[in-house]
Specification:
By secondary structure, the protein is of the alpha/beta class. The protein has two domains: 86 residues, Elongation Factor Tu (Ef-tu), domain 3 (Beta Barrel); 107 residues, 3-Layer(aba) Sandwich (Rossmann fold), CATH 3.40.50.80. The chain is 17% helix and 37% strand. The protein contains six helices and 15 strands. The strands form three sheets. A seven-stranded mixed β-sheet has the order 10-9-8-7-11-12-15, sandwiched between helices. The chain is globular, with a radius of gyration of 17 Å.
């Protein structure tokens, strides 16, 4: 069923890093939003809407982190405060919320964005979180101070060693004592990171936040489907975007 767009107002725009823009948007009457859900942001009259995950939420104010990769996201990133926006959502099922502490959050690159709201909700529920945030270099590490307000410990890693541990997220993760205290991991990042994470064959349950190009956002076009180990295609927009990593094929 198609969801009609809502009218929203852009309250704040700030640059987090090169090509990464934070937008704080107010959507009146939006209702409950679950960690892992996303919205489709209109990109003018020329391009299809872009699916952007909720990075944080406080009442009716929602934080989105937009990575500029093409004309559609470039159009969104150039919007200025007080600009009205057409927006659809919340969409998707959201992330399963476990009730046992601690949990580990694994974020690669801009994949850090949707895990922040998850960390905040876990803190509200009294669940202890550890976070491993990885990027190519220190200038691309974002939202670190926000994670530190929600997590028991935040570990940083960069490929070039400019901050924190040196190496890829999947190089650093097995060496962390915190990993072996947890039964559940939540991961978001490039597909290559998720593939490597799956290859580690960890005993923990891993919930992966998937990114996919979406046409409709409501399951009609089936353009975002991912193949499961059950040999059935699952729609990222309606059945996800969060899946058990061990149950999908990447």
């Amino acid at each position: 069923m198609k969801m009609e767009p809502r009218r929203a107002i852009l309250l704040e725009r700030r640059e987090l890093a090169r090509g990464l823009i934070a937008l704080r948007v107010r959507i009146q009457g939006v209702g409950e939003i679950k960690p892992g859900q996303f919205f489709e942001l209109q990109t003018g009259k020329t391009f299809l809407p872009r699916a952007i995950s909720v990075s944080d939420c406080m009442n009716e104010d929602i934080l989105f982190v937009v990575r500029v990769v093409g004309p559609g996201t470039s159009w969104i990133s150039q919007l200025q405060p007080e600009t009205p926006m057409d927006i659809r959502g919340p969409l998707g099922c959201g992330a399963p919320m476990v009730s046992e502490s601690p949990v580990m959050l694994c974020a690669g690159g801009v994949g850090v964005a949707p895990l922040l709201y998850l960390a905040r909700k876990f803190k509200e529920c009294g669940i202890v979180c550890y976070a491993l945030i990885a990027s190519r270099t220190s200038t691309e590490l974002i939202l670190v101070s926000e994670f530190r307000t929600c997590c028991e410990r935040v570990i940083l890693a960069t490929e070039d060693g400019s901050e924190g541990e040196k190496g890829l997220l999947t190089d650093v993760l097995p060496s962390l004592p915190e990993l072996y205290e947890t039964k559940v991991l939540y991961a978001c990042g490039p597909e290559a990171m998720l593939v490597s994470l799956k290859a580690l064959a960890l005993k923990q349950t891993i919930y992966a936040f998937l990114e996919s190009r979406m046409g409709c956002g409501t399951g009609l076009c089936v353009g975002c489907a991912v193949l499961g180990c059950d040999e059935i295609y699952h729609r990222v927009c309606t059945e996800g975007p969060v899946f058990n990593l061990k149950e999908i094929l990447l």
